[in-house]
Known about the structure:
Layout: H1 3-15, E1 26-30, E2 46-50, H2 66-74, E3 77-83, H3 90-106, E4 112-117, H4 119-127, E5 135-139, H5 150-161, E6 170-175, H6 189-195, E7 201-205, H7 219-232, H8 244-247, E8 272-277, E9 283-292, E10 295-303, E11 315-324, E12 327-332, E13 335-341, E14 347-353, E15 361-365
Parallel strand pairs: 2-3, 2-4, 4-5, 5-6, 6-7
Antiparallel strand pairs: 1-3, 8-9, 9-10, 10-11, 11-12, 12-13, 13-14, 14-15
Helix pairs in contact: 2-7, 3-4
Amino acid sequence: MGPIRRLAATLLLVLLPTLAWAGPDFWEEPAFPDRPLRGPGAALGVVVYNHGNDDSNEQYKVPVQPFVRLLAEDGWDVIKFARLRAADDVHRAEEALDAEVASLQRRGYGRIVLAGPSRGGWLALMVATRRPVFAVIATAPGGYGTKGHGPRRSLDEMRARLPQILPGTRVMIADFSGDPRADSVGGRGAIFRRALAGLPHVVIDRPQGFPGHTAAMTGRFARVYGGCIQRFVAPPPLPVDFSCDTASGLAVGADLPVPPEVAQVPERGLLGRWVGIYPNGDARLLVVTEAEGSRLHAVWSWASGPTGKPERAPGFERLNCTVSGTAITCPRPKGVALFSRRADNHLQYQWVPADTRQKRLTMELSRPGQW
C-alpha cells in the first residue's frame, strides 16, 4: 500500500465513528465552497441544508436557496446534506439526517439549524421531533410527492408529528399559494400554527407575490424575508411577538442608496418611494421627487440580490421624465425606462435597452409598505 492510500485508509478509520451514516447514498459537503467552514469554536453554529426531491433530477446538484447564504455571511457554518434520488426514501433519509445531527453534536456544534425546501424541509421538521436542535426553517414542506394521496398523507403526518417537536426549538415554516404539493383548501397556515402553538414559531402564510412550490428558491424571497430569517436564528431570546410581517417586509428597499436630500420625500400621488424586485433578488427603488404636468423628476436606485455572484455595486442616477396620461418615459444612457400607472396603485416598469440584442426587462413596483 502506497503512502497516499495508507493516509486515506487512516482518515477513513478516524472519520467512520463520526460519520456513521456516510456512504454512497447520503453524504455531507460544504454548501458554499467559496466560504470555508469556521468550525464549532468560531462559528455561530451550523446550518444543515436539506435539498428537495425530484422524480427526474438529482437535487443535490441544485443551488442552495439564496437566503441561506445570508446566514453564512452572518457567521454560521453551512453544510449540505446530500441525498441520492434513488435512495431518497422518506424514512431512510430521516434516519440518515438524524445521524448527521448527532455527528455534528459530537463534533461540538452547540447550535444546529435544519433548513430546506419541500422534502428537505419535511426532513428537518421530522428530525426535530426526535433530536434537540436550535431551529428549523422549512419552506413548502412535504414528504410524499405529488401523485395520488401523497400531499394528504404529508398533511396527516404533519398534524400528528409537528406537536412532537422537542420543546424550545424555534420553527419557521413558509407556505405558498398555488402549491400543487399542498393538498389543503385555503392553505396550511392555520394547521401549522395550531401544531406549533407551544413553540417559538413563525408561519409565513401564502405571502402575496410568491406563488408556487418553489417560491422560496428565488433571490426575491431572500431579499424580502432574508432579514427576518437572520433575526429568527440570532442567538438572543426570540421576542414573543416576533413576526416576519414587521421584521422584514416593511423594510424592503431600505438598503438601496439615495441622495440625502430625497430620503424623506412624502408619499403623495406619484411622489415618494416605489420598490421592485427581480426574481434573482436584484432590487430597484424609484423615488419620485417632483411631478408637475408633463414633467417628472426622480431618482432610480439599484442593488444586487443575495445570489453570491459578483454584481455591480449599488448606485443611483437622476431621471428627467415625460408624463403622458398613465405613461412615464425616462431616457437613460443605455436605453429608456418606461413606467405606467396601474389601477391597483402599482407601477409597471419596463427597461428598453438601446442595444436590441439585449433583453427587455419588466418589473412591478409597489410602495415599500405593501410588501
